[in-house]
Design goal:
By secondary structure, the protein is an all-beta fold. It has strands at residues 20-26, 29-30, 33-34, 38-44, 55-59, 65-67, 69-72, 80-87, 92-94, 102-105, 109-117, 127-134, 140-144, 154-158.
Length: 168
């Protein structure tokens, strides 16, 4: 029979990646009769909280990608499902076939992921990061001495880059 009483209005939050629980004890009463108390355990499962970091892809002078950037959510493929999205600045679309914890980006734009814990059903908020492009050769100049000179030299001047020649 429906009764009346105090409603439980607590907002329960799991603050880490561990499961939290709380036990509520309900004691039924009718008129002057008190029934047996019943314990109800409420489990609070945390939302997955993926972290994506902005990245850079390397492109050549023609705009072709020769070094991609890999996003990593930090979650395992075994216990989570992933939906990846791409925004090219105009529209956001689901990336077909992208269903793993990592994604290799080959284009400039905003990438987003939503993670679902397959055990608890908890779904993360949408998390985004930006991929930009860099052309390492765009700011490099090189000059060479004559091919058969006594002291042949090549002078390379990279502007705005760190570089290493022969691991030195």
């Amino acid at each position: 029979v429906n009764g009346s009483g105090d409603m439980i209005t607590d907002i329960l939050t799991a603050t880490s990646q561990s499961i939290g629980t709380v036990v509520y004890t309900v004691t039924p009463t009718a008129n002057t009769c008190t029934g047996t108390s019943v314990d109800f355990t409420v489990t609070v499962n945390p939302l997955p909280t993926p972290v994506l970091e902005d990245g850079i892809i390397c492109v050549d002078a023609a705009g072709n990608t020769f070094q991609s950037y890999t996003f990593d959510t930090g979650f395992s493929d075994a216990n989570y499902d992933f939906v990846w999205y791409f925004n090219n600045g105009t529209t956001t679309t689901t990336i077909n076939g992208a269903s793993n914890s990592t994604y290799e980006a080959n284009a400039v734009g905003i990438y987003s992921v939503q993670v679902t814990n397959t055990i608890t059903g908890c779904i993360s908020p949408l998390v985004s990061a930006t991929v930009t492009a860099s052309n390492p050769a765009a700011n490099v100049t090189a000059t060479a001495s004559l091919a058969f000179s006594d002291n042949a030299t090549i002078t390379v001047l990279p502007a705005g880059y760190l570089y290493s020649l022969d691991d030195g």
